[in-house]
Amino acid sequence: xxxxxxxxxxxxxxxxxxxxxxxxxxxxxxxxxxxxxxxxxxxxxxxxxxxxxxxxxxxxxxxxxxxxxxxxxxxxxxxxxxxxxxxxxxxxxxxxxxxxxxxxxxxxxxxxxxxxxxxxxx
Length: 122
Hints:
Elements: H1 4-20, H2 27-33, E1 36-41, E2 47-50, H3 56-62, E3 75-79, E4 82-86, H4 91-96, E5 104-107
Parallel strand pairs: 1-5
Antiparallel strand pairs: 1-2, 3-4, 3-5
C-alpha cells in the first residue's frame, strides 16, 4: 500500500524528470539516465536528490537532515515497490545501509517517547 507521502514524492520525481526533459524529444532515453532518490517527511529540504553511491543516512543529511520533529529510529525506505524500516540511530545500520537509484526515503515524525524534553536549568 502506497502512503500519501510516497505518492507525492513519486509524482514530484516524475514532474522533475519531465521538466528536465522538456527540451528533449526523446523523454524515455533521458529518463533512463536520470538517477535520483526522493527524500521526504520530516527533513529540512524534502525533494529529489541526484543519486550518489552513499548511505541512506547521507542522503537524509543531503536533504538538510531531520527536522526537530523528525526521528531516525523508524526511517521508511521504499525500493522496487517494497517498503522496509530502518533504525538509523544504530551505528551499524547508519554506516552500512546504502541507497539505490529510485529509492524513496521518508523520515517520520517522532512520537512522544522519542522526543527529548528541553532541559531547563533553574
